[in-house]
Inverse folding.
């Protein structure tokens, strides 16, 4: 295995293009574990941390563009970003320990393709858009369209995600992310939910996006759950309908981290709780 | 496959080493630089015993490649305090009997120092969540948390 | 027996503290020597398989590989228990569990060693396997080893059942007939790992001259020497074992897993060999404690009196014969003074890693089952759980459920302290329940050697043979200082290697402060006798006219007051002229360890929508006899309580249908993290042990026993439904709601 530092994005793409079995190294908190366990055997590691701009959080058209190598700790320390997208930021901050936060990146969390990745439901709910760079140039792809299955994304073998754009927020909007784990830290999500709401002046939900993690082969958007919230002030009936829709959309597996039955039920609980937090953050009062 | 030549500073001293492309910083510190204060408890970023700071940021040195630290500043437990002038965290850990076997202690000290640099007045809950990635199997954490809180108080100059 | 102490009960800083907060302390993996090779072990991916062949030729041909070994490299040994240990370190003929070692290599680097492992070709023939205790005990189960079935066992149990024990007195059926309420329940507990943060590590050097040096992290380097010398067919004198600083053990480092392998590789390669386990290897191949399946039946009168009690304990202890359920059967009802009681136990083998001790081995699960049924009876009869325990508590003079009559014990004191504590009467928040449980551990004494030298400058060196796992060098120095009448910092205690001080049993059974303490006090007595003799010589009076008081020789009798006292430092300074160096030593096997009881109170909050359980408040009461260093005693109580909390809530070995361990890492083997817990309030009770000069009882193990039932009882009261299996992970709790 070779280790190469890419100077710029075209070089990283060219290296990907030239090497079957190349892996990109950003935070490395998943990749290095895979290397140690022999689960990944790349012939070349392309370190993209030195690429200009990849380490930036930049304001863009009222939203924020988060570079591929920005760590969780940097995202958590960005006051304006946190004010605009508290749900996405809290999701990123839940990835691993403080030590892992020092390295792990949101884009890496996305590109790993784990159905339980914490930041992904929050990005889905936020309507985040990934900038994909490849041999043919750059294209913008909604995060929802990148997810293909456990460990799989829609990225081509010579493509990489250089950044993710969190769009401009309206007034009276808020998001939240919640996950269930058996301990209070250090676990992989058993079930999780990201909710993004926009309210009118009267506190009625006018737009909603609800996403779930760890209950299907990928994180999923649940339009029915969102629809259950639109038009409501999060009355109990709306929340119940949201939870029911989440349960219906869940198709989890039984494994060492939880039973399918448990995950299904918890997905609804997480969604309704996240919805309440998002609603409050949007200025609504429960 | 050839080794990679790396320059960095460790605890303020310039170091130069050769490492394998897949060799992690923890192994570099322990096997090549003879700094065995950072421990391998898991090798997968789950226990915190290998905590160091990299350019001031707390990381698990088992999840950093040696090759990645070119030009970086690394601090390990060996760079914190001296036998004559212990860091307040080290003193309070001793005073509170906050170590039993001591294998997690270097990681706790490095991690807690990084916390206090960022937040000089943490609550108990903030200390507990910051240190959630530092496993200790001996103490039940009680005395560690108390030691960190009292070291923080001393460092702030609180009379309490 | 109230004594006034000068040093005991204070809280000095531990002598190894500075090295441990500055990164200097040398643990198992921290030592390297020139010419050293790195070893790696190849492990079975099968739960049970015949090893048809192992082809090591490609690995041996790889540049940089200096030795490759398999089970064929180990000659048979006479002692069958040593043979089991040897075959656990390296499989011979069959791989008996997922993770069982089948070959090992030593090479010039870790990298080459890893590459060599991949070149070893093992042909396996998978065999039927069993990992559950009840299935393993069934008559049709695949049997791991023929010819080791326990004596007096019938055809109703399989050959995996290697031992049966029964303790008790009276007739439980008579007791049940007298009861107003009888409850019988079946419980299951998962296997849990000690979870020490330091993986096993060693550095072995066995030369062509037959002399060996072994550095390793162990709770007992004499035991390591014995086992390794037997396996390598060496004289014990030729193998010097040095215990490194030890990064946690909790019983898990009381035997060997890698040391014979490293020695054999070193012998074959002719170079020192370092072997360090990965965390995954620790989980797959070192001993967790037993899992259990248990039936407990208890009868209670309306007033709370327990009329009869019966337990049946089936323990699963992995791939080799073992003896551990006995301690569970003895512990189960130890907290109660009962007329009619019986506890039976079966030790069972399965295709899992060979069990090894984990803090109070065998007791936590048995006591969990008993204390759960007692709590359920209290709920059913509307009785206060502490009152019921006080009413039935074992006390001085009680005939214990396992035979002996208790001497002075502190259970009632602990229960009454719990009752009087503000925690017990504090109001409870919604969805919160308060759980109570007793706990018990025997504590051991065992063989011990201590050598003490009085230096000419008035300081003292002490060599003991027990690895210091939680601050014992401090407590031993304190007892030496107390006995000699000098200050703590005048004494330096070190743990000697196997060539520097006499035999000492393993650091286990909460025995070190008790047994090494007694040996230290006796060694001090011997030195004091000599110092009195020297003073008498200098004063030219009879030895009988000199007494040792507060660190100095005093003339007594008709010489009293005529001569100024002569201090230890003064006597030591002239020792070269009065007969040479002054020293004391003691070798013995103290056996009056004194049992220890604890009582834990816990408030748990259960999220009714998710089944998540949070520990909100925790108070642990424990009789420790005499707390030599109270801060370290508190640490033992706190640490034990939290390990028990982990056992109760989230820790478990998870096996798939294929018999493979699914969670060999700290990510999914979920030990408690800092943010899971509140402060753990320890309350030290001191009812002196009459078997120790200072009243010491062991204190290290008892605290892991009560949390399992305390947490379970708290959950039962929080949610109004009871679980009968551990861990009480959220899916199980939500299902019960």
């Amino acid at each position: 295995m070779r280790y190469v530092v890419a100077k710029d994005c075209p070089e990283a793409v060219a290296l990907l293009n030239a090497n079957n079995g190349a892996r990109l190294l950003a935070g490395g908190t998943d990749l290095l574990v895979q290397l140690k366990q022999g689960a990944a055997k790349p012939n070349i590691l392309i370190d993209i941390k030195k690429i200009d701009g990849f380490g930036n959080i930049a304001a863009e058209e009222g939203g924020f563009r988060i570079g591929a190598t920005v760590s969780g700790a940097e995202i958590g320390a960005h006051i304006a970003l946190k004010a605009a997208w508290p749900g996405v930021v809290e999701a990123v901050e839940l990835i691993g320990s403080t030590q892992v936060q020092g390295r792990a990146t949101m884009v890496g969390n996305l590109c790993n393709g784990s159905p339980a990745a914490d930041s992904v439901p929050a990005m889905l709910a936020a309507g985040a858009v990934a900038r994909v760079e490849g041999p043919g140039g750059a294209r913008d792809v909604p995060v929802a369209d990148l997810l293909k299955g456990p460990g799989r994304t829609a990225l081509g073998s010579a493509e990489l995600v250089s950044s993710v754009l969190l769009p401009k927020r309206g007034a009276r909007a808020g998001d939240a992310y919640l996950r269930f784990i058996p301990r209070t830290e250090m676990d992989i999500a058993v079930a999780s939910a990201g909710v993004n709401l926009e309210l009118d002046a009267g506190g009625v939900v006018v737009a909603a996006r609800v996403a779930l993690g760890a209950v299907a082969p990928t994180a999923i958007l649940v339009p029915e759950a969102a629809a259950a919230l639109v038009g409501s002030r999060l009355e109990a009936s709306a929340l119940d309908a949201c939870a029911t829709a989440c349960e219906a959309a869940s198709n989890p597996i039984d494994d060492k981290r939880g039973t399918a039955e448990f995950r299904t039920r918890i997905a609804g609980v997480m969604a309704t709780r996240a919805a309440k937090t998002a609603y409050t953050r949007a200025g609504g009062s429960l | 496959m050839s080794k990679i030549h790396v320059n960095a500073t460790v605890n303020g001293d310039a170091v130069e080493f050769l490492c394998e492309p897949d060799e992690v910083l923890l192994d570099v510190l322990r096997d090549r630089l003879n700094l065995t204060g950072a421990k391998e408890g898991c090798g997968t970023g789950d226990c915190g015993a290998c905590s160091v700071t990299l350019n001031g940021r707390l990381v698990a040195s088992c999840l950093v490649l040696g090759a990645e630290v070119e030009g970086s500043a690394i601090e390990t437990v060996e760079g914190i305090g001296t036998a004559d002038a212990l860091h307040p965290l080290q003193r309070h850990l001793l005073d509170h009997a906050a170590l039993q076997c001591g294998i997690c202690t270097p990681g706790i000290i490095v991690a807690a120092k990084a916390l206090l640099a960022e937040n000089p007045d943490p609550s108990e809950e903030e200390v507990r969540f910051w240190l959630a990635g530092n496993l200790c199997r001996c103490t039940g954490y009680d005395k560690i948390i108390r030691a960190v809180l009292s070291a923080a108080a001393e460092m702030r100059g609180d009379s309490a | 027996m109230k004594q006034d102490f000068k040093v005991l009960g204070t809280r000095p800083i531990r002598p190894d503290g500075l090295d441990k907060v500055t990164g200097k302390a040398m643990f198992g993996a921290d030592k390297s020597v020139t010419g050293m090779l790195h070893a790696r072990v190849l492990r079975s991916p099968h739960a049970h398989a015949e090893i048809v062949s192992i082809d090591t030729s490609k690995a041996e041909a790889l540049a940089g590989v200096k030795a490759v070994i398999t089970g064929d490299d180990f000659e048979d040994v006479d002692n069958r228990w040593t043979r089991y240990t040897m075959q656990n370190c390296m499989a011979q003929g069959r791989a008996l569990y997922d993770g069982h070692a089948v070959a090992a290599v030593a090479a010039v680097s870790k990298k080459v060693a890893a590459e060599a492992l991949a070149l070893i070709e093992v042909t396996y023939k998978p065999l039927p396997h069993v990992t559950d205790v009840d299935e393993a005990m069934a008559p049709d189960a695949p049997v791991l080893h023929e010819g080791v079935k326990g004596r007096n066992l019938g055809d109703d149990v399989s050959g995996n059942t290697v031992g049966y024990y029964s303790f008790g007195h009276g007739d439980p059926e008579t007791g049940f007939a007298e009861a107003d309420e009888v409850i019988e329940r079946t419980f299951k507990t998962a296997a849990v790992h000690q979870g020490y943060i330091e993986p096993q590590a060693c550095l072995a050097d066995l030369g062509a001259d037959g002399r060996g040096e072994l550095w390793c992290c162990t709770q007992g380097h004499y035991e390591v020497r014995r086992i390794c010398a037997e396996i390598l067919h060496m004289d014990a004198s030729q193998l010097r074992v040095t215990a490194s600083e030890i990064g946690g053990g909790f019983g898990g480092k009381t035997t060997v897993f890698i040391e014979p392998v490293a020695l054999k590789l070193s012998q074959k390669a002719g170079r020192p060999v370092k072997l360090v386990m990965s965390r995954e290897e620790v989980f797959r191949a070192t001993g967790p404690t037993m899992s259990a399946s248990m039936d407990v039946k208890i009868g209670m009168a309306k007033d709370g009196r327990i009329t009869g009690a019966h337990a049946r304990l089936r323990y699963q202890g992995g791939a080799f014969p073992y003896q551990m359920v006995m301690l569970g059967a003895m512990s189960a009802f130890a907290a109660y003074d009962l007329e009619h009681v019986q506890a039976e136990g079966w030790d069972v083998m399965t295709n899992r890693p060979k069990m090894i001790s984990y803090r109070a081995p065998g007791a936590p699960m048995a006591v969990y089952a008993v204390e759960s049924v007692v709590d359920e009876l209290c709920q059913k009869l509307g009785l206060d759980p502490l009152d019921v325990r006080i009413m039935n508590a074992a006390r001085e003079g009680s005939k214990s459920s396992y035979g002996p009559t208790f001497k002075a014990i502190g259970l009632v004191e602990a229960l009454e302290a719990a009752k009087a504590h503000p925690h017990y009467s504090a109001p409870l928040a919604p969805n919160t329940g308060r759980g109570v449980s007793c706990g018990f551990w025997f504590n051991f004494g065992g063989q011990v050697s201590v050598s003490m030298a009085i230096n000419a400058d008035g300081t003292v060196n002490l060599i003991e043979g027990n690895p210091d796992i939680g601050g014992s060098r401090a407590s031993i120095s304190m007892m030496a200082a107390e006995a000699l009448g000098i200050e703590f910092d005048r004494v330096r205690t070190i743990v000697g290697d196997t060539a520097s001080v006499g035999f000492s049993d393993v650091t286990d059974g909460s025995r070190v402060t008790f047994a090494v303490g007694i040996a230290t006090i006796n060694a001090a007595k011997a030195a004091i006798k000599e110092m009195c003799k020297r003073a008498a010589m200098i004063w030219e009076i009879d030895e009988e006219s000199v007494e040792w008081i507060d660190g100095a020789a005093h003339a007594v009798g008709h010489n009293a007051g005529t001569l100024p006292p002569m201090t230890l430092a003064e006597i030591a300074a002239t020792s070269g002229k009065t007969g040479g160096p002054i020293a004391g030593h003691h070798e013995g096997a103290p056996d009056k360890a004194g049992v220890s009881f604890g009582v834990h109170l816990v408030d748990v909050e259960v999220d009714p929508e998710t089944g998540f359980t949070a520990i909100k408040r925790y108070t642990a009461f424990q009789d420790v006899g005499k707390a030599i260093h109270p801060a370290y005693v508190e640490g033992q109580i706190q640490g034990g309580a939290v390990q028990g909390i982990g056992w109760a809530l989230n820790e478990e070995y998870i096996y798939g249908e294929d018999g493979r361990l699914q969670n060999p890492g700290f990510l999914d083997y979920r030990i408690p993290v800092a943010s899971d817990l509140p402060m753990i309030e320890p309350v030290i009770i001191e009812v002196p042990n009459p078997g120790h000069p200072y009243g010491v009882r062991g204190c290290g193990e008892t605290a892991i026993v009560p949390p399992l039932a305390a947490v379970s009882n708290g959950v039962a009261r929080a949610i109004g439904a009871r679980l009968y299996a551990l861990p009480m992970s959220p899916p199980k709790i939500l299902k019960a709601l």
User: Anything to note?
Assistant: Chain C has three domains: 36-127+200-276, 291-443+594-736, 445-588. Chain C has a mean pLDDT of 97.
